[in-house]
Structures are given as C-alpha cells and as structure tokens.
Specification:
two-stranded antiparallel sheet; globular; single chain; 15 helices; mainly alpha; 48% helix; disordered C terminus; 4 strands
Length: 353
Amino acid sequence: MLPRKILVSKEQLAEFEQSGTHAQLVAYIQALNDAVIGVKLTDECACSEGIHAIIRVLDDIDRLVDATPPVDNAGSRFGNPAFRSFYDKVQELATPCHAALPGLQPDAVPELAAYLSESWGSRTRIDYGSGMELNFLCWLFCLERLGVVRESDHTALVTRVFWRYMQIMRRVQSSYWLEPAGSHGVWGLDDYHFLPFLFGSAQLRGHKYLRPKSIHDEDVLMEYSKYYMYLACIQFINSIKTASLRWHSPMLDDISAVKTWDKVNSGMIKMYKAEVLGKLPVMQHFLFGSLLPWEGSILPETAVEEPDEHGHVHVKGEATWGDCCGIPVPSAFGAAVAQKGLSGPSIRPVPFD
C-alpha cells in the first residue's frame, strides 16, 4: 500500500510509542548498531547482491546532484530552489530503480519508492532533518523485510550503504544550502543528522586508545575520521563552523566528557527514542504503510486543521507554536557564502551567531 501520514496528535504519539511498529524500528536500530561495534568503515565485510544493487541506486542519485547544479541565489542564505528540480528527478528515479533490486515483487515498489523519495529532504521547505534520515532507515528496514537484504548484511548496511547515503546527503546539503528542519536543529547533535553519531559511537566502543574527549584533538580527527563516522561528523562540523564545539554544538561538547564510548552509545539509543521517535514535530511526517503499519486510532478529518505553510498539520484548538513551526534557520553553507562574499556551493568556516 502507498504509505501515508497519520500521526498528528500527542495521544497518537503515545499510542505509537507502545506499538509493534515502534518496537520493530527500535529493534532494527539496535541490530544495526550491534553489527558495527568495533568495526571501521574500511574493514572488509560481507556484501550480498542486494547490497551492491542498493549502492548502485545511491550512485544514480549521486549523479543527479551533478546533473542539477544550484541556481544563482546569491541574495539568500536559505535553500537553493534548484533542490526542487533535484527532488523531482529523485522521484522520477525512485520507481524504476527498484527493478534492479534482487527478488523484489513489483507490487512492493510504490511503498518502497515513497520512503526513498522522502529520504532526501522536503521539496516544499528545502530543508532536511532527522525525519528524512529516518525515512532512509525505513527504506532499508522494508528492503530487509522483503528479502532484498538479510541479517548477515547488517554490517554492510551501515558501513557501506548508510555511509554512502551520508556522503551524498552532505553533497546535497552543501550544494543546495538545505536548511535544518525545525528551528531547534542547531541545538542538537548536528544541524541535520543523528544516526551517524549513534552508529559511530558503536564503532568506537571498546577502542583501546580513543576516548570521547578525543573529539577535541585535531590530529585525532585528521587521522581517524576516515575510519569512524562519529569522528568524521565532528570533522565536518568543524569544517563549516568556527569557534569551539562548546559554543556551536554544546551537546556534543557535553557528551565528550562521558568516560566511555559504551555509555555514549547506550545514551545515543535512548536519546534517539526520545528526540526522534518520541517527538511529534518529527513523527507527524512519518509514513505508515503495510510493512510499517499504523496500529492506533485515526482522528477524523474534522478534528485537524489544513496543513500550514510548513506542511505541518495541527489538531484544532491546540497551540501551533513549537519546534515544527519556529523561525527558519539559515543554512550554515549559505551563511558561510554570505560572509565570504562567495557564490555557488561552498563549505567554509562560519562564526556561530
């Protein structure tokens, strides 16, 4: 079935958190997490035919970035309108690209294509956040449920597939200056992502020498960022923002004081459940289908308002101000270009303001 948005109220969110779908998602994240404990990005791992086919799909999407250059938008620090053309091209590709995935039945493609299309950002708002990242995870979850990949592929799903997705998303963010989704984005782990910190902390669990405080050592970042997602993300943040993590990423700075990566990793899983799966502004965009079904009550149409300019839906009579409807946050890439007087896609240090 074609997935659709259903969850709009706090009561529905409480139902979701007690549902089998929620439990399956958390179990899947935990399984992927456990598969990369102590594993480097460069380590050899088993890659099935399905893994190779998925990577080819991602390579095709990567080429769409090359085929869709940003338009001249020098007067704005917000999203570049060319992103909408890129998004449309991804949607056009999303259905036919599934034909190359092994063992996939044609009737499953519309459901899968919806999750893949929504993994790259919002066409309306030209932004990106943890909800879109979650759609990519749901796409992988569905592919495993349908037998395209299997449990033995879990390591490769993180170190090959998810990391490839991350590399493409960084290109998309920097090319089109995607805004962080939600006005609270800059106060989180990263303006855009959560899962690379979760999986990345699993990679570092039990490391003989590296400790959470190592993220403040530039030499460590330079040497080990090619092996560990967590350190690569820290290095990326440092490349587009000046000053210390304490000022522009206070949460990451606080986490660096934790004694072990084991505690960081377990905390990341708890935090993901609370800050992503447990937040209405994120989960109201979640797509429920046959593989990830909605198991709670459905509000009648008369109980909800029409979508606002952000694409958000609110229950009638409830306050609309919140994380989902706050003040837009300029892209760090756009801010960098504005400060330096540059044009076109760019990654430059930008003071935190």
